[in-house]
Amino acid sequence: MAQERTLSIIKPDAVAKNAVGDIISRFEKAGLQVVACKMVNLSKDKAEGFYAEHSERPFFNDLVSFMTSGPVVVQVLEGDNAIAKNRELMGATDPKKAEAGTIRADFATSIDANAVHGSDAPESAQREVAYFFSDEEICPRG
Ligand code: RTP
Ligand code: MG
């Protein structure tokens, strides 16, 4: 299977719950490696730019407010089939619909405060990784 990179964000609700370690542990146990990682407070501009594809959606302002409400942990995950594997580990956007044992089923509160973000396709993964990390900040272990 193809080695891929994907962008993961542990959102403010999960950081506030002290669930950072539990969530990263799930990625590692599933065979994904953390090859870049930082904790940041997103500015309104940075959050709006990140979710620009949703700018016309009714939930956009709430989404940006939520993503700027506290620190987030932004990571690059690398591994076989990393984009789909991360989405599988995350579970459905709405935690009520997320399969048991997924990150969102276990840690999310609502469709807004849903614990994690993961890139949804190779193109978005490439764009999102570059939105947060320079090449020098990514540390593949080979
Ligand atoms: P994400 O981008 O955060 O990984 O989530 P996703 O792909 O599962 O969902 P997406 O459709 O890209 O939506 C981005 C985020 O917007 C919020 N949302 N709220 N109230 C609503 O109907 C609604 N729909 C989406 C969620 O926080 C979602 O993660
Ligand atoms: Mg999305």
UniProtKB/TrEMBL annotation:
Keyword terms, alphabetized: ATP-binding, Cytoplasm, Kinase, Magnesium, Metal-binding, Nucleotide metabolism, Nucleotide-binding, Phosphoprotein, Transferase
Gene3D superfamilies: Nucleoside diphosphate kinase-like domain
Subcellular location: Cytoplasm
Binding site for ATP: 11, 59, 87, 93, 104, 114
Cofactor (UniProt): Mg(2+)
Signal sequence, renumbered to the chain: none
Keyword Cytoplasm belongs to the record: yes
Function according to Swiss-Prot or TrEMBL: Major role in the synthesis of nucleoside triphosphates other than ATP. The ATP gamma phosphate is transferred to the NDP beta phosphate via a ping-pong mechanism, using a phosphorylated active-site intermediate.
Family statement: Belongs to the NDK family.
Name of the protein in question: Nucleoside diphosphate kinase
